[in-house]
Structure formats: C-alpha cells, structure tokens
Amino acid sequence: MRDRETGVFFSGVLGDRSETAVRRGRYRRLSGFFSIVRAGCCILLALCILPGISSAAIHTTLGSDVHLSGISYGSSNVYLFVTGPNLPMEGAAPNNIAAGGGMTRVGVDVDGSWSYDWDTHAIPLDAGSYTVWVVDAPVGRAELAGHDYATITVTFSRPYVSVPAAVVPGSLEIHAIPENSSVVVGGQYRGMTPLTLRDLSPGPYIVTISHFSYKPSTRSVTVEAGSTTVMNVTLAPQTGGLRIVTSPNAARIQIDGRDAGISPLTLQDIAVGNHTVVAHQEGYRTTEQEVSVPAGQTVNISLTLLPSTPAPSATQAGNAGTTVLLAIMAGIAGCAILRRK
User: Fold this and answer.
1) Closest Cα partner for 237 from 254, 262, 212, 256?
2) Which of 237, 253, 305, 310 has its Cβ near the most Cβ atoms within 10 Å?
C-alpha cells in the first residue's frame, strides 16, 4: 500500500482574532496532532483547538468583511460553500449567495496557503449562524466522503447603535459653620461657603469642608437628577490643652473671663488660638497671662501671685497722730523746766 500525506488547515480571522478548526468523523490523538484514518492513507492535520471541539467560531455583524485563510497540502485549489438560515441544504457560494447553490474556488499558493475575504456588505444574509465549508475538491455537501474538508461557524448579528439616555443634571448647595469655609469636591477646590454647584452629573460625590483652626469634615453626598441636594456642615474647632500651676496653689483660674477651676489644673479641648488666663487668690495680687494654644498640643503655664499690702485703717491713723502730738508736748515741757533752773 502506498502512503500519501496530505492535510487541510483552516482558520478564520476577524481583526486581530484568529480561529482555527477541523471537523472530522473519526480521529485519534497522536503526539499533538490528530490522525485521520481512512482506507489507503493517513492524513495529518495540525489543530489549534482542544480534542472534542469540532469547529471554531467567528462572531461579527452583518455587512462585515470576514477574512478566511488556511493551509491545504496536496491540492492546488480549495472550494468554499456556505450553509445556514434560508440557504439550500447543499449550500451556496459565498460570493453569490443570492443565486443559491454552487461554490467559490480559491487558489492555493505554492507554500500551501490560501485566503479569501468574504465581503457580506451586499449579500442578503439574515442574522444567525452560518457554516463555511472548505473542501479540497468541487464536491457538494452530500459528496464529502473521501475528501478532506474543514468547517468554521460564522455568527452574524444585526449592527446597532447605542444611544445613551439624556442625563439630567442636578445641583449641590453647601452651607457651613463657620462661613467662608473651603469646599473641595472630588479632589478639586470649588470655592467657599455658602456655595451652590450646578450642572452636576447625578451620582455620589466626596465633599471636604475645611477652615483655619477647625477640624475638616469629609462626607459622601449623592446628587439627584433634576433636583438640588442641600448639605449643612458644622465644623468642630481644632483643640489643644492647658496645664496651669500657680504659686501658691489653690488659686482660682479663669480663661477668657470664664471660671475654669482651682490650680493646679489641666484642661483639654481648648480652642486653638490666643487666650487670657487669670489667677485669683485672697491676700495676693491678681495675675494674668496671654497664651497661644496650638492644635493637638498641651501648653504649660506657671503663674506666681505676689502678696498684697493692706492700706492703714482710720483708727490706726488716729492713734499714730495722738502719739506724735504727745511726744511734741513732752518735748516742750522738758525745755521749760530746764530754763527755770
């Protein structure tokens, strides 16, 4: 028996997508190839699909240019016909679908390769799946026995244009305490409060409100289509602390005119900025000091109170005068006695 090696390799390409398929009735796996056994010969066909998959597929739209190519060893031509929706059972030539029947002959180059561009723009195809048959001889579907052939499925869908629905914008109205707070929306500075932002696309936004000496506030707010979303924010002051000691202890402490307690004293949540600290204690002079409180820090203050000097009373003043007068009179009497002698 004389051995004869031939093969048919078929691929379909659309854009950068390549599909390869071979359909056979009986085969067995042999070292990465499929060996097709029939009486008198053995045909080796290189496959790029997994065992058990009989064909590959191309998905495109009606009117597309489908590029088909492959390799056929041992034949100078390959013959293409198509079967599918509303086509004859025996198929039709790809380049003459309207006439029905027939096939398209494609020449094979000296290196065994062939290619065919199937322009479906002017062909009356219906949407659906079609099978392209490639045969090594001009035989119909009913006469494929004894011939090499391959198939690929091409599925056509109707072209469509997606028109997005009109987007109705919304607005965002922002108020903050204190006023003139900075507003950042989605990472972009948008102005100072009170602020109204219009023509915003509906959806969620991240809004950050900030002001000097206040803690920033970040919130997520959703803008509704065709409406105004109102956002009210009250910022909390940035704070620090004061640690106050006095000499002597037990002085009454006031901060900005408000009683704060008895020293020694540690106070938290003091607003950032300048403050006046006053210390009072009976018998001592009132002492005060200006202090600046930074954010997140505790400031130490030491106050020294000086004793106060009491003013003389009226009785004490009268007694002192009497004592001086008596001393003067005693002096005069003494002088008189000395003269008599």
Assistant:
1) 212
2) 253
224 three-state secondary structure: coil
Q: Which domains does the chain have, with CATH numbers?
A: 7-157 (2.60.40.10), 170-234 (2.60.40.1120), 239-304 (2.60.40.10)
User: 126 with 86: CB under 8 angstroms?
Assistant: yes
pLDDT of residue 141: 87
Q: Which residues contact 149 (CB under 8 A, 6 or more apart)?
A: 8, 23, 133, 134, 135, 136
Q: What residues contact residue 24 under an 8 Å CB cut-off, 6+ apart? A: 34, 36, 45
Query: Where is pLDDT greater, at 19 or 223?
Result: 223
* CA trace torsion 64, 69, 75, 78 (10° rounding): -10
| Distance spanning both ends of the chain, measured CA to CA | 187
Query: pLDDT per residue over 67-76, tens digit each?
Result: 888 888 778 8
Using alpha carbons only, what angle is made at residue 147 by residues 144 and 150, rounded to the nearest 5 degrees?
Answer: 80
Q: Edge-to-edge, what's the strand order for the sheet holding 217-223?
A: 188-192, 182-185, 203-210, 217-223
| Exposure class string for 3-24: b at 16+ Cβ within 10 A, else e | eeebbbbbbbbbeeeebbbbbb
